[in-house]
Amino acid sequence: xxxxxxxxxxxxxxxxxxxxxxxxxxxxxxxxxxxxxxxxxxxxxxxxxxxxxxxxxxxxxxxxxxxxxxxxxxxxxxxxxxxxxxxxxxxxxxxxxxxxxxxxxxxxxxxxxxxxxxxxxxxxxxxxxxxxxx
Amino acid sequence: xxxxxxxxxxxxxxxxxxxxxxxxxxxxxxxxxxxxxxxxxxxxxxxxxxxxxxxxxxxxxxxxxxxxxxxxxxxxxxxxxxxxxxxxxxxxxxxxxxxxxxxxxxxxxxxxxxxxxxxxxxxxxxxxxxxxxxxxxxxxxxxxxxxxxxxxxxxxxxxxxxxxxxxxxxxxxxxxxxxxxxxxxxxxxxxxxxxxxxxxxxxxxxxxxxxxxxxxxxxxxxxxxxxxxxxxxxxxxxxxxxxxxxxxxxxxxxxxxxxxxxxxxxxxxxxxxxxxxxxxxxxxxxxxxxxxxxxxxxxxxxxxxxxxxxxxxxxxxxxxxxxxxxxxxxxxxxxxxxxxxxxxxxxxxxxxxxxxxxxxxxxxxxxxxxxxxxxxxxxxxxxxxxxxxxxxxxxxxxxxxxxxxxxxxxxxxxxxxxxxxxxxxxxxxxxxxxxxxxxxxxxxxxxxxxxxxxxxxxxxxxxxxxxxxxxxxxxxxxxxxxxxxxxxxxxxxxxxxxxxxxxxxxxxxxxxxxxxxxxxxxxxxxxxxxxxxxxxxxxxxxxxxxxxxxxxxxxxxxxxxxxxxxx
Lengths: 134, 567
Hints:
The structure holds two protein chains of two kinds. By secondary structure, chain A is mainly alpha-helical. Helices cover 84% and strands 4% of the residues of chain A.
């Protein structure tokens, strides 16, 4: 991206304006809160499980039902919790993040189109002025 | 693995190779620019890319390796399955941000706000290539051993005029040629389709085996576990943690503690490494937008989860149906457990012919798995060498895209040649630890740089570079000084269990996996590098990165719908 970033599709000013936007702050806060919650819950639960495997062997050896012991049961629950967290994240993102980010993105794109239109008109005007003058 | 079955196996290999070659040639015709070569034209759908992500991720090490560990050491093998899956939640949180911020590689994200681009790009390229080559080496050495096992060539025997040793070398070379061909010819488009086919094959094979094995126990999981525990001769202990990892040594509390820390270290590396694996990251960019990227990771989570859950049935099933003695006789590491299980189940369902057919099918699946994973790795490293190092460091971001792609093709050839030569040199050594090491390196070097780039306002170029080199060198040095390289002796036979022969011992670091120390060290270096440097972070670019990563404003879209394409 070196060389190209300073002339990205939307000029720097546009990003700065968006970064100040109240809705963007809301979006960022929501994402960060969500990310922290998910990371804390899955890492906490995973390391609890690892710690139990390492240091609470007697507990893990307890039969849950049939030949299925606590270790296997909790291990399978890690799978279940992963699926549930992925689903929760996706649902939250669809409801609370996507609409906001789409709104901000579309507005930026619209402004970009307007700006291009204005530039086009200005260029046309300059061309006509040059032509009449010449 | 005797008799005519091996010809069937060989025939299925050839069918897979021919089909994938056809696809690669098709992809070559449809690859026009850098977006096509590096990112498959960003045209893949969520489910397609999800299958390809799963295909890139589920290596032969996890298919054959985990089944083998479970078959021989019981429950402990399942810990790999759990770590490999849970790690995807971190990927899910990062994928959209990285898709929005980057273009082709991890370095695109890291250098977005860095003032000193060449330094950052170089570090990222070095890290990408190092992690990939280590991972590649493990897969290729495994491929050599696997194919000679699959074709049933035992020491002293020959198949089509090849001895076991020659078959190993030849396999490594053929795998090397194939992966270089896939990448140079097919680019990301071809490689992605190879991954998709491989993922479908692998899922099908695993589901068939799982249903057959569970069917033998009346679909009662508890009965299967009971039978496995009984067959192992260790009764209930076989179903509990502690036979392989975190072993408790009586009368030696220090050794016990070290074993347990080693186990935790492995668990940390597995869960934090995935989001930094180069071949996974490069797949974030093959979809049109961030939402599709999220969908594809969700697909991958579903597929990977179902797959790793089934490793329980494969592993414990192999113990119950085949027996540990027969497995260990074929391969002491247990890598053939899933194949032997396939043979036994096929025989049970359809006589000797059934056994040969199922074995040949699962063997071909394993071969496809290896080929697909190594191609993904070669593509990721050649993309980084061409786009990051050649394009942005040597040529200061001004090469024509066609030049960059030509360099990428050449780089794929170089990386492939390097991997083949290294793999042939170390082909008889036990390099299985390299997979876990690659995860540890990805977590120590890449993860701190990615996370801090996205979320820490003060983070700067010096921090990125310090974090990457610190994590990379830290994990390499710790590995070199660990028992996997020297000084691990079998207490009974006195033979060396390390890379180097018995008698050489310079190990200073007690843990086999460096993750527990090297990952915090990587983060520490990244933070210290930032704070110690006088460089001021580019606030405007950080705002831009935040806006872009969260909203997708200005992100790289598929060519036909990219607004305001650059000149």
